[in-house]
Amino acid sequence: DAGVIQSPRHEVTEMGQEVTLRCKPISGHDYLFWYRQTMMRGLELLIYFNNNVPIDDSGMPEDRFSAKMPNASFSTLKIQPSEPRDSAVYFCASTQGHYGYTFGSGTRLTVV
Amino acid sequence: DQQVKQNSPSLSVQEGRISILNCDYTNSMFDYFLWYKKYPAEGPTFLISISSIKDKNEDGRFTVFLNKSAKHLSLHIVPSQPGDSAVYFCAASAGGSARQLTFGSGTQLTVLP
Fold this sequence. Notes:
Chain A has 112 residues and is an all-beta fold. Helix content of chain A is 0%, strand content 55%. Chain B is 0% helix and 56% strand. Chain B contains no helices and 11 strands.
């Protein structure tokens, strides 16, 4: 089991550019979560999916953020246009049961 | 409004001593609590959990205590080891499932050799 796979590991982009973060959950996990980690707020839930359907996107900060899960093995988080305040580490996690999430290694995003 | 609070951003402990990490919550609907550990450049990993029907859960050197009346939980690590140095996140869930978690802001634990 390769775990939750996120790409890229690091992304540096200029303000105003589009950024796409990718996630491959663990096979068989039916829940997928996108979190953002910042020093001030810790881990914030942005959106989560169940069986590829978005269930709660109330944590998505603005319309500039969007997420999709076209199939059970792939999800994207897109920021368009990006701003410096979006700089953070973005984590994807998946789960099936009641024993907590499996997180990916994260994507460190820097918007300059 | 932060529903899960970790008021100590950092904690330093001598190797071999006890580490106590604290967490408070405000949502009385929370009934399942977890601790995650995070090393630099890695994602958080699940450490230990407790259901609200219990007040203590032990796993080796790690014990989590839950005080429902005070809406407080704590993680005890005994004895602390340098490899325990990491950020520890407290998390909580409502509805008897770990499928939607609210995390605290984390506590950086440093275990000094």
